[in-house]
């Protein structure tokens, strides 16, 4: 009896695993995904990645806080990527900042980075003066490729069998 799934044999399914494991995702993929979600939800607002002296208002300043890459098991690692998104607009009132925060929660709840769909966790915000600080963290598991085993070049036998 052979095992199949959606018309594919076990061998065909197993042959696809290396392709999945080759799927690479980078920190910059997440950065672009966050920027893309912001552009889609707020097309009228500029998105910056560095502090600017004379910003065009309103604007978002997107920063990656201290990220971590923790080994979980053998080649499996957990990536934790916390983002801090600052929204600045001196003309906004506090209740308008809360509306912006709610839209951020909706738009950053799930992003697509490196061919993967990842949910945002730990979302929170606070309004400070003319700025809104929004926090969201993305976590995912990545598999590192196996280390290449070094092979022996040649083995030469000297001498013979001793009685």
In words, what does this structure look like?
Pfam families: Phage_tail_terminator_8 (PF20765). There is one protein chain. The chain has 163 residues and is an alpha+beta fold. Strands 3, 4, 5, 6, 7, 8 and 9 form a seven-stranded mixed sheet that branches. The protein has a single domain, classed as Phage tail protein-like (STM4215-like). The chain has three helices and nine strands. The longest helix has 15 residues.
Sequence-ordered SSE layout with sheet pairings:
Blueprint: E1 4-5, E2 8-9, H1 10-21, H2 27-41, E3 46-48, E4 59-64, E5 68-73, E6 76-88, H3 94-107, E7 110-113, E8 116-128, E9 131-143
Parallel strand pairs: 3-4
Antiparallel strand pairs: 1-2, 4-6, 5-6, 6-9, 7-8, 8-9
Features:
25% helix, elongated, STM4215-like, 3 helices, 9 strands, seven-stranded mixed sheet, 163 residues
A few lines on this structure:
InterPro entries: Phage_tail_terminator. By secondary structure, the chain is α+β, with helices and mostly antiparallel strands. Helices cover 25% and strands 38% of the residues.
